[in-house]
Each structure stands twice: as C-alpha cells, then as structure tokens.
Amino acid sequence: RTTHFGYQEVPVDEKASRVADVFHSVAARYDVMNDLMSFGIHRVWKRLTLERAGVRPGQRVLDIAGGTGDLTLKFSRKVGPRGQVVLADINASMLRVGRDKLLDHGVGGNVEYVQANAECLPFPDNSFDCITIAFGLRNVTDKDAALRSMTRVLKPGGRLLVLEFSKPDNPLLSKAYDDYSFHLLPKMGQWVAGDADSYRYLAESIRMHPDQETLKGMMEAAGLERVEYTNLTGGIVALHRGIKL
Ligand code: SAM
C-alpha cells in the first residue's frame, strides 16, 4: 500500500544484507521465538516502554524497526481514532507479518505501514510526538545516523525511547547470560526455527552493542536532552529515553 509519506530506497551494505537475511528467515516464527527465548519477559519490557512513552489520545507515534508490531498495537489503542501510529521497518517480511497480526487484532484506520530505513527516515522534520525503537538499534549499521534521523523527525518536546539489550550489571549474571546466548540460544533457534545461524547472529549483535552509558552519550550527541535510562532484568535490557527540546 502506498502511503502519503512514500517509500524509501534502502542502501545495501554487508551488515544490512546480513540483517535482511536474518529477519526474512525468522519473520514467520519471530513472535513465538521471542516468547521462548525471553521466557515471555519481553512482554514486561514492552509494557514498561509503553508506560514511559506517556502517549496521549490524538498523538502521532513512530514505531521504527517495529517488526511484528507489538508496540504499535499498544500505541494504536492509546492514541485512539484521532491519533496515528506508523509501523516502520526496513524488512518487508517482518512488516507483512506485523500488518497481518494487527489486522487480526482488529486494528484499523490509525495505523500506517511504511518500509523505511532508520538511518534516513522518509518523514518531514518535527512529525512525531513519540518514537520507539525496540530491539532494533543494534541491527542498524550506522547507529549515530539513525539517532540523528529519529531526532530530526521528532517534534520539539517529543521523546525517543530506545529499548535494547545492554550490559548486565553483575558479573555472575553476565557469565550466565553469555552461556545462555552463545550456547543455548543457537540450539533453540535450530530446534524451533531450523535456523541456528540467525540466532548466533543475534547473540553476536548483542555482545557488540554499546553499553548503557555509551548509548546515553550517543543520544546526547544526536541532539537529545534529559537522556536517562533504566536497567531492566539486571541490565540485560535497558530502556533509554531522551527528549528533543
Ligand atoms: N520492535 C520489534 C520487537 O521489539 O519485537 C522487532 C524487533 S526485531 C529484533 C528487529 C527489527 O529491526 C527487524 O524487524 C529488522 O528488520 C529491523 N531493522 C533492522 N535494521 C533496520 C533499519 N536500518 N531500519 C529499520 N528497521 C531495521
């Protein structure tokens, strides 16, 4: 479906095509794997993100790297018929699974679906009251460009929330988590989705992702203010929030 925003050409590089392969491969089983791999805890992390977003009826929200649309579904209920939520993702397979799921949930007129790269968002400046990127930033090749692009399309007073794997704050938890992600996770990927490689990539991308303080600094460098974060599940995940003033 063509939207009034239009679509965006996606620049291809090696990491981007690797990420594309991973998400084309896991799209159909993404939701069930998410529940299995996180023991359902991703639902709690997303609920907290919704609370911290503080979205009100009538507002415009962008859920970038929104994949199968868990957050979009929650936001569409919050903003109501006068508001709008854009579910955007670089990957057509994820977007398709997300759109089908939201339609099954009876979501209608206030959600738009846009294939877009977070690094160069195809929206005018100052478009959104709130932007979320959940478990998406670590897949983006140029994270600084993505943070700048998201800041650009935020309205003044709007907020960006980044929900992402981070650095556990306790060495014992860190060791257990490494064992889990480098050994058990690829095996689960093999058993459930017949795809160990995608889940090996997942573990590697988590290890490479900037820690809490580094990401906070990157958000500030992109022009966001009052940046703060909350560690969830011992820092396995962190929720960062910054405001465009
Ligand atoms: N936000 C959803 C959630 O929390 O369940 C999906 C997260 S999924 C782990 C990561 C998503 O990021 C994938 O759907 C992938 O296609 C998308 N993605 C990766 N690189 C991207 C980019 N440069 N721009 C937009 N989306 C991207």
UniProtKB/TrEMBL annotation:
<dbReference type="InterPro" id="IPR004033">
    <property type="entry name" value="UbiE/COQ5_MeTrFase"/>
</dbReference>
<comment type="pathway">
    <text>Quinol/quinone metabolism; menaquinone biosynthesis; menaquinol from 1,4-dihydroxy-2-naphthoate: step 2/2.</text>
</comment>
<comment type="function">
    <text>Methyltransferase required for the conversion of demethylmenaquinol (DMKH2) to menaquinol (MKH2) and the conversion of 2-polyprenyl-6-methoxy-1,4-benzoquinol (DDMQH2) to 2-polyprenyl-3-methyl-6-methoxy-1,4-benzoquinol (DMQH2).</text>
</comment>
<dbReference type="GO" id="GO:0008425">
    <property type="term" value="F:2-methoxy-6-polyprenyl-1,4-benzoquinol methyltransferase activity"/>
</dbReference>
<keyword id="KW-0949">S-adenosyl-L-methionine</keyword>
<keyword id="KW-0489">Methyltransferase</keyword>
<protein>
    <recommendedName>
        <fullName>Ubiquinone/menaquinone biosynthesis C-methyltransferase UbiE</fullName>
        <ecNumber>2.1.1.163</ecNumber>
        <ecNumber>2.1.1.201</ecNumber>
    </recommendedName>
</protein>
<feature type="binding site">
    <location>
        <position position="68"/>
    </location>
    <ligand>
        <name>S-adenosyl-L-methionine</name>
    </ligand>
</feature>
<feature type="binding site">
    <location>
        <position position="89"/>
    </location>
    <ligand>
        <name>S-adenosyl-L-methionine</name>
    </ligand>
</feature>
<dbReference type="GO" id="GO:0043770">
    <property type="term" value="F:demethylmenaquinone methyltransferase activity"/>
</dbReference>
<feature type="binding site">
    <location>
        <begin position="117"/>
        <end position="118"/>
    </location>
    <ligand>
        <name>S-adenosyl-L-methionine</name>
    </ligand>
</feature>
<comment type="similarity">
    <text>Belongs to the class I-like SAM-binding methyltransferase superfamily. MenG/UbiE family.</text>
</comment>
<keyword id="KW-0474">Menaquinone biosynthesis</keyword>
<keyword id="KW-0831">Ubiquinone biosynthesis</keyword>
<dbReference type="InterPro" id="IPR023576">
    <property type="entry name" value="UbiE/COQ5_MeTrFase_CS"/>
</dbReference>
<comment type="pathway">
    <text>Cofactor biosynthesis; ubiquinone biosynthesis.</text>
</comment>
<keyword id="KW-0808">Transferase</keyword>
<dbReference type="Pfam" id="PF01209">
    <property type="entry name" value="Ubie_methyltran"/>
</dbReference>
<dbReference type="GO" id="GO:0032259">
    <property type="term" value="P:methylation"/>
</dbReference>
<dbReference type="GO" id="GO:0009234">
    <property type="term" value="P:menaquinone biosynthetic process"/>
</dbReference>
<dbReference type="InterPro" id="IPR029063">
    <property type="entry name" value="SAM-dependent_MTases_sf"/>
</dbReference>
<dbReference type="GO" id="GO:0009060">
    <property type="term" value="P:aerobic respiration"/>
</dbReference>
